[in-house]
Amino acid sequence: MTVRDLQDEILKIKRDTDTCILAHSYMTEEICEIADFVGDSYALSVKAKSTPEKNVIMCGVRFMAETVKMLSPQKRVYLANASAGCPMAEQFSKEEIEAVKKMYPAYAVVAYINTTAELKTVADVCVTSSSAVKICKAIPQKNILFIPDINLGSYVKAQVPEKNFKLLSGGCPTHAKIEEEDVKAAKSAHPNALFLVHPECRPEVVKYADYVGSTSGITDYAKLSAAKEFIIGTENSIVQHLQFTCPDKKFYPLSKDLVCHNMKIITLNDVYACLKGEGGEEIVMNEELRLAAVKSIDKMIEYGG
Ligand code: 13P
Ligand code: SF4
Q1: Disulfide-capable partner of 58 in 65, 193, 209, 239 (CB 3.0 to 4.6 Å)?
Q2: From the CB of 172, is ligand 2 less than 6 Å away?
Q3: Secondary structure of 109-138 in the HEC alphabet?
């Protein structure tokens, strides 16, 4: 069987089983090709509410599938590969955040969407990398406890100087391992390239950016820009997607280490097995947890527009 045969088979079963396939933009090209929708975390959350199909397969990490289930409890939601988790989402327990909240009772908890459902229950509002600045500006609270990503938190803090921020020390192990030296090396290898970076990278990396944004933000910027060369400071799948989308431009990875092994564990074969009921994991969520957690996602969509 070839990749194309498998894709055709997936498209057929998908139609027959009334299933929608959502894919985060860190998926491989072959998965993006068979998905009904590809996007960043924010776009996937919004899309999850409006898909008419009875079943949803999330090709992404666990918190993304949980978000779909929270927003569409009547649907059967599956994570394409049960071992695809986001390490950042599990860095802090609900109890740890509750203890910090007690120290700062006047602070609103703003949680990056890369958190477990449990953690979302103690958040006032969720944000994604594309909506964090807008939402932190829009919420009425002046004091913000931003969890868990210190790098995204530092970026937002710099963009919203009118508010007071407390940050925790969490972060993405993939983006946070990139150093200033990696940027200098990429820039010296490609002196004419613009540098587009995800705010999960460290401030000393982000400071060199020509553009800072989410995976969709980076993609849109590169598509619309008149420039011809770009260094991509996020997961390396975006480099290949952009090369397909803009064949007349050149895209370079910031580092060969920018690989999210959790996203990359998901294969086209996993999607096929999940569709056939022979793989993946159905997301089951107790209604009490769902109702407590979804409030922060609803608030995100309300403020995020
Ligand atoms: P986006 O919101 O940009 O899709 O980011 C999700 C993510 O996990 C980045 O590491
Ligand atoms: Fe989580 Fe980082 Fe992977 Fe995104 S790239 S899913 S934040 S580990």
Answers
A1: 65
A2: yes
A3: EEEECCCCHHHHCCCCEEECCCCHHHHHHH
**pLDDT tops 90 at residue 167:** yes
Encode pLDDT of 189-212 as tens digits.
999 999 999 999 999 999 999 999
Residues 6 or more apart from 12 whose CB is under 8 A from it? Answer: none
Q: Nearest CA to 260 among 195, 196, 215, 305?
A: 215
- pTM, 2 dp: 0.96
Residue 61, ligand 2, Cβ within 6 A: yes
What sections of the chain are H helices per DSSP?
Answer: 3-16, 29-34, 41-50, 62-71, 94-103, 117-120, 132-138, 150-159, 173-176, 180-189, 203-206, 215-224, 237-245, 261-264, 268-275, 287-304
245 CB contacts (<8 Å, ≥6 apart)? 219, 223
CA-wise closest residue to 81 among 264, 290, 284, 285 = 264
Q: Which of 218, 210, 212, 209 is nearest to 237 (CA)?
A: 218
| Domains and their CATH numbers in the chain | 3-85+263-286 (3.40.50.10800), 94-172+290-304 (3.40.50.10800), 178-256 (3.40.50.10800)
275 alpha carbon to ligand 2 midpoint, in Å? Answer: 25
The DSSP element (H or E) to which 165 belongs, if any, is: strand 164-167
- Closest residue by CA, ligand 1 atom 7: 41
